[in-house]
Design goal:
The chain crosses the membrane at residues 16-38, 50-72, 92-112, 124-148, 160-182, 225-248. This protein has 13 helices and no strands. The chain is an all-alpha fold.
């Protein structure tokens, strides 16, 4: 008969099953986004298509890892429950979880750095973000090394460094991207409300992943000072799993929203120039001219939609 699980072991295995359910659900969402991209963005350059293929492969690999680990744990639980719970700490497939997440995050972060350069042309911001994300990837590799060598204290310390660097880079990148998008969509008489503009900018930035990284960092730091906290373990497991999928979702949402932005700029029904100051006596309105709050953003999105990698930069 299989040995009886302790309360902690049973809880951890149950949380892992919940984590896998989230993984499969988000993988389905990403598959829908990949299908939408394939059917609507055939004019993209070969480099952009290769980026999407690589993103699909990394997300699928992450889901396969979760499924295989669940299958191995279920098989081990039927023989020895304690061995099944220890798989999370001893089996090599579980030990590469962090590096898979770090690779997916860095992959998408480089995409958003490229996009930040396209909308800001600020080399300092892009350089700072790139350095932070590369440092985060290196710290993830170092953490994985200590995990494989069973150096718990070193792995815990480097895990904190990794999460802190990634969190800082995410906030710099997200804040810079939102600022540039809002600057391009400057307020005017008939523009959308500020709240709508901010929400649209958040959706076209890595803001969801940055928020998840913040929660993940806070929870992981709290767990290191707590002996047994079931709620924190649940949140930590889920945020660790959700984070790479949120990065992928943000990238695909950005790519799939470009066509709508371009169409809105090209087919806007407004009949006056929204860049004019209110009350100006010199009316320079033009029939059918798209509003100025969409023109700069649409120009950038067209560059990403039609141009080669150099024009996207």
């Amino acid at each position: 008969m299989p040995s009886e699980l302790t309360r902690m072991e049973a809880y951890v295995l149950g949380v892992w099953d919940i984590r896998v359910c989230f993984s499969l659900f988000l993988q389905g969402v990403l598959c829908a986004q990949f299908a939408h991209y394939t059917s609507r963005n055939k004019r993209d350059s070969i480099w952009m298509k290769l980026f999407v293929v690589g993103l699909a492969l990394t997300a699928t690999l992450k889901s396969l890892q979760s499924i295989v680990m669940t299958w191995i744990q279920n098989a081990a639980t039927s023989r020895n429950g304690h061995a099944a719970s220890n798989l999370l700490h001893t089996y090599w497939l579980a030990k590469i979880t962090l590096i898979l997440e770090a690779i997916t995050a860095s992959y998408v972060q480089m995409f958003f750095c490229r996009r930040l350069w396209a909308i800001s042309r600020n080399p300092y911001l892009v350089t700072v973000c790139t350095i932070l994300f590369m440092a985060g990837l290196v710290s993830g590799v170092v953490t994985t090394f200590y995990i494989f060598t069973a150096s718990i204290e070193s792995a815990t310390g480097w895990m904190g460094v990794h999460l802190g660097i990634i969190l800082g880079g995410d906030f710099v990148l997200t804040g810079s991207t939102i600022f540039c998008l809002l600057r391009h969509s400057r307020e005017c008489a008939l523009s959308r409300s500020p709240t709508t503009s901010i929400l649209n900018s958040l959706r076209r930035s890595p803001a969801p992943a940055a928020l998840c990284a913040l929660i993940n960092f806070a929870v992981d730091m709290r767990i290191t000072t707590t002996i047994w906290a079931p709620g924190l373990i649940l949140v930590a497991f889920i945020t660790n799993m959700v984070l790479p999928y949120l990065y992928a979702w943000s990238a695909m949402w950005t790519l799939n929203s470009r066509e709508g932005i371009c169409l809105a700029a090209a087919n806007c029904p407004y009949t006056f120039h929204l860049g004019l100051s209110v009350g100006s006596s010199n009316s320079e309105t033009t029939q059918g001219q798209p509003p100025s709050n969409l023109e700069p953003v649409a120009k950038v999105e067209r560059a990403q939609l039609d141009g080669p990698p150099e024009s996207m930069a």
